[in-house]
Write a structure and sequence with these properties.
- By secondary structure, the protein is an alpha/beta fold.
- The chain contains 8 helices and 12 strands.
- It has a 5-stranded parallel sheet with strand order 2-1-3-4-5, with helices on both faces. Strands 6-7-8-9 form a 4-stranded antiparallel sheet, covered by helices on one side.
- β8 and β9 form a beta hairpin.
- α1 crosses α5.
- The longest helix is centred in the N-terminal third of the chain and has 15 residues.
- The radius of gyration is 24 Å and the shape is elongated.
Length: 230
């Protein structure tokens, strides 16, 4: 079960947010207010998502602004994903404090947008890994979408590059000769030379950022291997 904490001072907002989250049985919601006395009661490490509801709060109340800022800074130092819920006209808070939130949504879009935004953030944080995916650190190879992402950034691969990387990730630390790769990825009816493998490996390494490109290793006079542990 994924723990979500809601910071809010608005009873109506609490009820509405609780109702939306109640539609997903995988979430456990905790509710608290802003301020030091509230933040002393929870451990950010145990919480995956924090919802910071400021919709309807006074912008001129210095205590509210200070308590909100303190709470946001504590969350920013943790690995907790942060979503701010606000009214139109409060966007300047995001520009003034860009590190306070990973996502934001307007209170009037709560019903339609909150669950998709939480789901997106959980995938981004790799709390939820897409089914049928190969994962090494921040590198996710989605076999259903034929998509490679590293630290949430999508990297465009050709079909052959994708198939080579899939083969390597499925067989870590196994050495493949050029003939092995030609027969597996290109098929036995391929009439090109082994130079084709070298060209594709060079292009694949160029597309993948460090340290993952260094995991694609050349075995001199033999072929290639994928070694994530070295």
């Amino acid at each position: 079960m994924i723990k979500i904490i809601l910071f809010s001072e608005n009873k109506n907002n609490i009820e509405n947010i609780s109702a939306v989250l109640g539609k997903n049985n995988d979430f456990k919601l905790e509710i608290t207010g802003y301020g030091k006395s509230q933040t002393d009661k929870w451990e950010p490490e145990d919480i995956k998502i924090a919802l910071l509801d400021i919709a309807g709060l006074s912008r001129v109340d210095k205590n509210i602004k200070r308590n909100f800022k303190n709470t946001a800074e504590i969350l920013n130092r943790s690995k907790t994903g942060r979503i701010i819920i606000l009214d139109p006209g409060q966007q300047d808070l995001l520009f003034e404090n860009p590190l306070f939130a990973d996502e934001f949504l307007f209170i009037q879009n709560l019903e339609k947008e909150m669950l998709p935004r939480i789901d997106f953030l959980l995938h981004k944080m790799k709390v939820i890994i897409p089914e049928d995916s190969l994962v090494i650190g921040d590198m996710v190879l989605n076999l259903e979408k034929y998509e490679l992402s590293i630290d949430t950034r999508v990297i465009v691969l050709t079909f052959k590059e994708f198939e080579i990387l899939k083969l390597f990730m499925q067989n870590s630390n196994r050495v493949f000769t050029r003939i092995d790769l030609l027969s597996t990825v290109w098929g036995y009816d391929y009439y090109g030379g082994s130079r084709t493998v070298d060209v594709h490996m060079r292009r694949l390494r160029a597309k993948i950022p460090p340290p993952y490109n260094n995991m694609l290793k050349t075995i001199r006079n033999v072929g290639y291997m994928f070694s994530p542990g070295k």
